[in-house]
Amino acid sequence: MVWTPLHAKIHRTIRSRHLFERNQRLLVAVSGGQDSLCLIKLLLDLQSKWGWYLGIAHCDHRWRSDSQANANHVEDLAKTWGISFYLETANKPINSEATARDWRYQALSGIAQANNYQYIVTGHTASDRAETLLYNLIRGTGADGLQALTWQRPLTTGIMLVRPLLEITCTQTEQFCQEFKLPIWEDSTNQDLQYARNRIRQEFIPYLRDNFNPQVESALAQTAELLQAEVEYLEKAAQELREKAMSWGMEDEEDSLTPLLPLRLNRRVLQKAPLALQRRVMRQVLQQILTDAPSFEHIEKLTALIVAPNRSQTDPFPGGAIAQVEGDWICLK
């Protein structure tokens, strides 16, 4: 086996970030593109050092005429490498990026649960991280959206989603595939500029690279990495503040933290906190009672009640809940 600097880098990353344990079962999502082929090749080469059992999963969205041929290509690779192969095909063509992503993770989780895999591994790179940061920034988001692609997160009970390539750019994965003559399946939809992410990848990032920073992808990925640690800290601090505000003066703290309405927050506790934590507390509260993610406007009108006059109230949130000031308390009912 040829041991490249990329092998060494990924080996160190997995070890230092504790992404996997030894002798675990890893289900690798392989589309056939350069990033996923780079990923599976690296994991195969590192397999002897870690004792992993590897499987390949492919999701056919049925949104291209060559999708079945693509799936067959990945299955042939799995047979060549002697790896278990799993295919999930959509019942009907999926045309939305968001819908496709949700379906894909659901499909991968189902395969992992049925076949006792502890990890689902994807080939997201620093380039994907940079694109996600820009995409969410343009749409309007806080720090949470800017750090959206994290190294690992629980996907379902007992299954962790892991992204080992977040410090590797797509240029590096392309060079790696060329070096090892890996048969990349070119996805024609990646060139379709009707998708916003493709325009960011094909037009916006090259413009930034040529005119502002040749290493813009790595720079943006590092920003996402910094934001990830800060978001984790702020979320934990906000949770502690929320629990204190909900349990203030209550004899039974467990009952006071129930997500069911009516729900009360002590204004005196919240007034002592910085605005950033106040907003995060309100977002956490709204996440408990709304079916969709709370908007900036939802969070702001609830935060405003922290210093509003007595008897002030909001107009109804989606679903009909109303927040009202009752003395030292904000009551949602």
Short structural description:
The protein is of the alpha/beta class.
Q: What does this protein look like?
A:
The chain is 51% helix and 13% strand. The strands form two sheets. It has a six-stranded mixed sheet, with helices on both faces. A three-stranded antiparallel sheet has the order 7-9-8. The longest helix has 32 residues, at 216-247. The termini are far apart. With 333 residues, the protein is α/β, with parallel strands linked by helices. Helix 5 packs across helix 8 (196-211). It has 13 helices and nine strands.
Strand content: 5-15%
Mean pLDDT rating: 91
Give me the side-by-side strand order of the main sheet.
3-2-1-4-6-5
Q: Which segments are poorly predicted (pLDDT under 50) over 5 or more consecutive residues?
A: 251-258
Structural class: alpha/beta
Shape descriptor reads elongated
SSE series: HEHEHEHEHHEEHHHHEHHHEE
Question: What is the radius of gyration?
Answer: 23 Å
For the termini, the CA-CA separation is 64 Å
SS elements, strand count: 9
Helix fraction bin: 40-55%
Number of helices, counting only DSSP H or I runs of 4 residues or more: 13
Query: Biggest sheet: strands, sense, closure?
Result: 6 strands, mixed
